[in-house]
Amino acid sequence: MHQVHRLVSRAVLTAVFALAAAPLAAQGTVPIDDPAIRRAFAAIQSWNNWIIDNQVSICEIPAPPFKETARGIEYRKRLMALGYSNVKIDTAGNVVAERPGRGGGPSIMIAGHLDTVFPEGTDVKVKRTGTRLDGAGIGDDCRGLAVVLAVARALNEARIETRGTVYLVGNVGEEGPGNLRGVRELLTNSYKGKVDQFISVDGTGLDITARAVGSKRFNVVFTGPGGHSYGAFGNVPSAIHAMGRAIGNIGDLVPPTGMKTTYNVGTVKGGTSVNTISPDASMEIDMRSESLENLEKMDQLIHAAIAKAVAAENARWPGARGQISVRYDTIGIRPVGRVIQNDSTPIIRTGLAAAKAMGFTPDVGASSTDSNLPMSMGIPAMTIDGGGRGGNAHAAGEWYDDGQDGYKGPQWALLIVASLAGLVRSTTP
Ligand SMILES: [Zn+2]
After folding, report:
1. How many angstroms is it from 238 CA to the middle of ligand 1?
2. Residues with CB under 5 A from ligand 1 (ion)
3. N or C: which end of the chain has fewer CB within 10 A?
4. End-to-end distance of the chain based on CA atoms, in angstroms?
5. 329 and 343 in a common domain
6. How far is the CA of 202 from the centre of ligand 1 (A)?
7. Hey, is 293 helix, strand or coil?
8. pTM (2 d.p.)
9. Residue 327: Cβ within 10 Å count
10. 262 and 129 together in one domain
């Protein structure tokens, strides 16, 4: 997740309250002046400590990739405690609360991800120092999970009615190894056809991810006969030498022009001993781009570079017994967007308008998140930050600081959800 930190001054806060009283017309389609929204904003601010307590206690339940079950069961319990009677856990382990709308509006799914990058056995105790929290996953994505709970509570407590149904979700499988299996299950199976727009709340800050950086990741495995470094010299090709040639070729590649496109050999493994012509070698490769065309081109260039290297190693020892062969194991594929969204795409416009009504201006960027999947299906989607500030995501020393105005994250999320789902305007103050 990208991290952009933004401090909001007291003057801006004052402006928020001034704006809350401004007429609807001034806010475009964002109903920040509605009495129910005002109740929800006030409520969120008043139980900010509850949000933080949830963020901390959820985070102290370990959730390594593919082992999100315990955290998911607890998340379901907490949604039910907020008055959601029918909270389901689908076959992938996604937790989904459904808040039916009155009809006539789009259905909105808002999700935080349950999984972390941290392996089993990681110390998940959160240390609290004033408004600062230190802990594994505390920002990415315990913050998002806490924000979704806050939205769930505020919708009920402020008696907000929407036209479209709102799905409040804790999903599995966002991080690398999970390969988006949670949202994939939700949107292509368990809630297939039921979600018109998708919002992921991921990480800290107050920015928007509007575009999907797609990626392809492979483990490339080279195998050969292997042999003694002295006795078999000249009689067998080397898997390590072949891979070395491949890395040399890849290092010289020029990515396609246009949208930013990248490649990286991230890890290498292999070999038996210093005096063995290696029978095996492997490397992990990552390629990324926002453009499907560029990603495919990059993929072809990498494949060609590797094929050329293997052919060269095999040709080096013409009389050799056995040859080097190569295999590609897919580690992960993150899809790019079907359409490349921008600031004028309606869902992004709503995110920006809600922020503007609250007195801040998000950066709009590209990243690789749960929203990649809906974007690839043509479902309007965005990933928003959960408020506060944070750092060291995916690393030891991850931290979150709620500061003086962390509550703006959940307020923003709530305003976006109510705007997109179509707020049924209150008749009572
Ligand atoms: Zn995340």
Report:
1. 40
2. 1, 140-141, 202
3. C
4. 40
5. no
6. 5
7. helix
8. 0.85
9. 11
10. no
